Each structure stands twice: as C-alpha cells, then as structure tokens.
Amino acid sequence: MRLYRIIKTKYAHDLTGGGAKLSGGRWNHAGIPCIYLAESRALSLLEYVAHTSIKTLPPTLSFITLEVPDSSIRQLPVNELPADWLKQPHSKASQDIGSAYLTKNDHLLLQLPSVIIEQEFNFILNTRHPLISAVKIAEVTKVMANAIISPKARTGSPLQGMQ
C-alpha cells in the first residue's frame, strides 16, 4: 500500500523515526521512534500545515511516497480510543496507547482516524518492527513552500484582492 508524508527535504530518506523520538507526538512519547503517515498526499499536507506555523515553515519540503506492506496493520477504531483523543494539545492517554503499541512491536502499522478529518486515516509506522526493511521510498517530490501559505501571505497571488 502507498502512504504519504511531508517533511523537510533533507530528511526525505530518513526512515528511523528520529524526529518523533526526539519530541514525541500525539501517539508517541519522546524516546520512542516512529513515523507519522497519511493515506493521501492531501491529508499529509493538511496535517503538516495544521501543526506548523507559517513563520517556521522550512524553505524546502518534500512529499514522500512510501510502499508499505499491508500485511501487518492494527486498526484502532474511534470506540477504542481514549475519550480525550481529540484534545488539543494531545493527551497523555493518546501517547500511552500509541507508545504501548510501538513498544509491543506486534504490527508494522497502527491505523488511526485523523483528528482533523475523522473519516480519513493516519498511520503510525513502527520503525523497530522487523518488516521495516520491506518499506520502500517510492517517490520524493519537492513541494513549493509558497503553495501551502495562505493566499493573503503570497506576493503576486492571483487570489489577492478576492478576499
């Protein structure tokens, strides 16, 4: 199956999960490596923009398309998530669930509903699972940073003056 992420171009080929290990995230505590993925490029972009300030937007970003075996997925439906899983900022309970899954190491992927669009899915890639060697980078495509900045912030945008 194909899954997607958007990341600083200099980390495009890094499948260690080091960024999530350093800072933690909604579904992992700091110290536990993993990679956050989305089922579409559009969702990966939406998730990225929702968690990044325009002021800190890196000048070079890339879409990464991964080929991932679909034989080792644990699906977590909404009714199995903690009551506060939608909380902003994320709760310790959501980090506990994801970290337990990653530590148990039974599956390569954890499928979870997106906080932004509950009917779509994000995936947590367990970089310590034995099947990680079967994960392949299928494509790296550069993203124009100004394409994800709001039209009001763009210079010379055809949308300026229409707001």
Automatic annotation (TrEMBL):
Residues 14-139 form the RES domain. It comes from the Bacteria. InterPro entries: RES_dom. This is RES domain-containing protein. It comes from Niastella populi.
